[in-house]
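Try this one yourself first.
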């Protein structure tokens, strides 16, 4: 049996899952654990597709074959929905996907009931039935309990995959019944090679994105494929760099514009939180440059501007203590956001003491 899963890094997990298929040792429940953007969802889809592929037992065929009825149906679904971003559920007889609805806090018990009942019906093609739960750490307590009942009485040929970034919000009783697979950040040179060889990017694009994504290959791919997303990211970087040449009024003006032009369709809190995380990354870069670690910086694309800021700081006799203090201010700003302080105020407060 051969596989054509597009993966970057985390080979151990991929090979383990492929071996599960080859040796017919499929578990009833898997937990794909690790930070976002490591490719967990992609691997989950390809694992599901290979299980559902009607040609998977044919020695010479590469799976998923993309040719049989099951593969074709899944292709149509993938084209119709951007499953990761909207769609809380996607149905094709043997494949079911649950995600948190965009505005909701949790995955609801109702969603999980539908999920369980869909998986309980017999298979369209007399094959496996696979259900994926994205962001499973957001299962409501009721939803988690409903799911637990299903895991306690597993059905043959039903596979459930929980994609989670952390185990702390999942009941131990679910965790103990699942095969846990850890996903880790991927070395930047592996991502670099993927971008230049498979995606045929230029070396400078690969250098930039492989550092920018901080070991998260799915994020590098998103930067590459979604121009708008990338530009919004860079805009937040540039706003922060500009702050260093601005007085407080100009900074507040910049924040006002940032909050107004919300093109990523985020809530104001998400937007502000994103900005703070990006700005913390820049401060980390400044700290790295300050100690001479040029090759380690995340924002290679603005390395000249960053060097300039370090130079100005040295001339103004600001040392790394100032940067560490700024880091603390930004960390605190994140907490204010969590505590529902007005996001614009939080940002203004954070940049007033630059
Ligand atoms: Zn197939």
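Now uncover the answer:
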């Amino acid at each position: 049996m051969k596989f054509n899963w597009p993966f970057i890094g985390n080979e151990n997990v991929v090979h383990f899952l492929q071996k599960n298929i080859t040796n017919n040792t499929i578990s009833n429940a898997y937990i794909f654990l690790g930070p976002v953007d490591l490719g967990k969802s992609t691997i989950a889809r390809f694992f599901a597709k290979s299980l559902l592929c009607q040609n998977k037992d044919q020695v010479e065929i590469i799976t998923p074959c993309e040719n049989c009825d099951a593969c074709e149906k899944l292709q149509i679904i993938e084209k119709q929905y951007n499953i990761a971003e909207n769609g809380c559920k996607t149905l094709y007889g043997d494949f079911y996907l649950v995600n948190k609805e965009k505005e909701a806090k949790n995955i609801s018990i109702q969603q999980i009931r539908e999920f369980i009942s869909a998986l309980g019906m017999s298979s369209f093609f007399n094959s496996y039935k696979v259900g994926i739960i994205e962001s499973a750490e957001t299962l409501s307590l009721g939803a988690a309990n409903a799911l637990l009942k299903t895991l306690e009485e597993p059905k043959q040929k039903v596979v459930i995959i929980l994609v989670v970034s952390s185990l702390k919000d999942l009941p131990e009783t679910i965790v103990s019944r699942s095969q846990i697979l850890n996903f880790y950040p991927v070395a930047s040179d592996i991502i670099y090679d993927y971008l230049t060889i498979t995606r045929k990017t230029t070396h400078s694009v690969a250098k930039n994105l492989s550092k920018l994504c901080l070991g998260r290959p799915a994020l590098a791919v998103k930067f590459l494929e979604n121009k708008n997303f990338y530009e919004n990211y860079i805009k937040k970087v540039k706003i922060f760099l500009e702050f260093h040449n601005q007085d407080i009024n100009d900074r507040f003006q910049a924040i006002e514009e940032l909050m107004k032009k919300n093109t990523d369709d985020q809530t104001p809190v998400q937007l502000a939180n994103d900005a703070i995380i990006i700005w913390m990354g820049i401060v980390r870069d400044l700290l790295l440059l300050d100690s001479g670690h040029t090759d380690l910086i995340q924002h290679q694309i603005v390395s000249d501007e960053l060097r300039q800021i370090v130079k100005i700081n040295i001339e103004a006799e600001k040392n790394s203590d100032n940067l560490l203090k700024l880091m603390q201010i930004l960390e605190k700003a994140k907490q204010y956001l969590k505590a529902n302080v007005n996001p614009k105020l939080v940002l203004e407060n954070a940049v007033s003491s630059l």
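Discussion: The mean pLDDT is 89. The first strand starts at residue 2 and ends at 3.
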